[in-house]
Specification:
Layout: E1 5-11, H1 14-26, E2 31-35, E3 47-52, H2 56-67
Length: 69
């Protein structure tokens, strides 16, 4: 798998990020989560959903469609 990952979604809620990631995967868009939260406190930092550069447009369209529901 290539290393050209692009951030398409950022949140402070790891569960929301996981739901977005799973939705992308179900729509055949490879996605990973980069958790930047502090492991001691879990209240500082963000969780990013990343996709391949080639899937960026499709991923953003999917995320936009879920936010309007």
């Amino acid at each position: 798998m290539e290393n050209n990952w692009i951030k398409v979604y950022t949140t402070q809620d790891a569960i929301t990020a996981e739901i977005i990631k799973q939705g992308l995967i179900e729509n055949e868009i490879a996605a990973v989560i980069m958790n930047k939260k502090d492991s001691s406190y879990q209240t500082f930092g963000t969780v990013d959903v990343m996709v391949s550069e080639t899937d960026q447009d499709a991923a953003e369209a999917y995320i936009k469609s879920t936010e309007s529901e």
